[in-house]
Amino acid sequence: MHEVNAPIELFREWFRDAEAGEVNDPNAMSIATTDADGLPDVRIVLLKGFDAEGFVFYTNSRSQKGRELAGNMRAAGALHWKSLRRQVRFRGPVEHVTDAEADAYFASRARDSRIGAWASLQSQPLADRAELEAAVARESARFGDGEVPRPPHWLGYRVRPVYVEFWTEKPFRLHDRLIFTREKPEGEWDRKRFYP
Question: Which residues are catalytic?
Answer without folding.
Answer: 173
